[in-house]
Amino acid sequence: MAAITFITHDGEEHKVEAEPGSTVMEAAVRAMVPGIEAECGGACACATCHVYVASSWREAVGGPSPMEEDMLDFAYEVGEGSRLSCQIKVTDALDGLTVRVPERQA
Amino acid sequence: MDHVATSPVETDVLIVGAGPVGLFAVFELGLFDMRCHLVDILDRPGGQCAELYPEKPIYDIPAYPSISAQGLVDRLMEQIAPFAPQFHFEQMVSALTRMDDGRFLVETDVGTHFLAKVVVIAAGGGSFQPKRPPIPGIEPYEGTSVQYSVRRMDDFRGQNLAIVGGGDSALDWALNLHPIAGRITLIHRRDEFRAAPDSVNKMRALVEAGEMDLVIGQVSGLDGEDGVLEGITVKTADGPVALPVTRMLPFFGLTMKLGPIANWGLNLEQNLIPVDTEKFETSEPGIFAIGDINTYPGKLKLILSGFHEAALMTQAAKRICAPGERIVFQYTTSSTKLQKKLGVA
Fold this sequence. Notes:
The complex is a heterodimer of chains A (about 110) and B (about 350). With about 110 residues, chain A is an alpha+beta fold. Helices cover about 15% and strands about 20% of the residues of chain A. In chain A, strands 2-1-5-3-4 form a 5-stranded mixed β-sheet. The N and C termini of chain A lie far apart (about 30 Å). The mean pLDDT of chain A is about 95. Helix content of chain B is about 20%, strand content about 30%. In chain B, the strands form 6 sheets. In chain B, strands 1, 2, 5, 6, 7, 8 and 19 form a 7-stranded mixed β-sheet that branches. The longest helix of chain B has 19 residues, at about 305-320. The model of chain B has no long low-confidence stretch (mean pLDDT about 95). Classes of the chains: A alpha+beta (about 110), B alpha/beta (about 350).
């Protein structure tokens, strides 16, 4: 299992255990982390599971694919480390990952 | 007294939504001689499959190890062709009234009227609507200075227009409105566009020639009063930039909303319609809900579940459309009657 910390816009921390092979979005939805809507259920078709990956984790997590980049155009306040959490696969290497949840989803 | 300008379309069944489940319902209902009209907000059949992920493969359609979403829609259209369904695209059902004879009078937002014995809601996640960018304070400008689609190009004549987005809608309208608008600024968060390369090249040529502006950034604020836009602020890599625009057209894709169905007096649970699992009927007799829009204990939002729901709903719909008639269960493999309906016998 990999521990993932979601920091919501009000600063609250939600620490969630995620299974390798699942996605960061699935971990958030299962733990009902506020601010992750995931309307389309993980099809990379809606941009409502947007998170900011903490700077120290960006290299390990990697950047968005071209398809995800296109979908990020629909997200709100896209910035450094912006990713759609349904497109981040959990691995043991991501144990300890921290992401911030934006103020609102698109 | 009010009167309807055109006489209503009479049908056995009115299906709200032409996604995969609505389409397959035509097949099941057709085998039992019920004719269908379908209404959909999109301009073509397929619902989410056609609009959101046409190229993506689906792996859990029985007997198809892999099929693209558009491929599935195409096969369904082929399968239901013998039943000649009538489509009414680019409109949304608005009002529903039960008449004295038990039928439903259903109206759409463009004024089409239907008289249906049965209404089947197969509306998936709801009706597709343009996504509203979450810019603080945008509401007072919507419908006047800020529009999400172009209804009349003349609304933009001489205006200082900001078009926001990087897809085909944004690029196409930037090019189409260029001769009409006073000045166009295209705003996109990155210097890459997911639009037809030809449109991107044309846009870049106009920017190069100084006839159009391109700003890389995200709109963060609006200035104006009483719904009249006077300027916007764009967050760019070099800090905030103020632009004196008077009209804005944001193109941020589509989202799904339940829409006017919410006002039909049906029981709702978190924007889903509870149904029983024998007939998939709503709290209102004669109105059924199948596919992603319904909910019941154990519900799975799978296309295949919707297909099953369509088959069971059909049995109950038949009892309403042909009361007293004996319903004979038959297989398409062995029944000549069914094969005749399908045009294969």
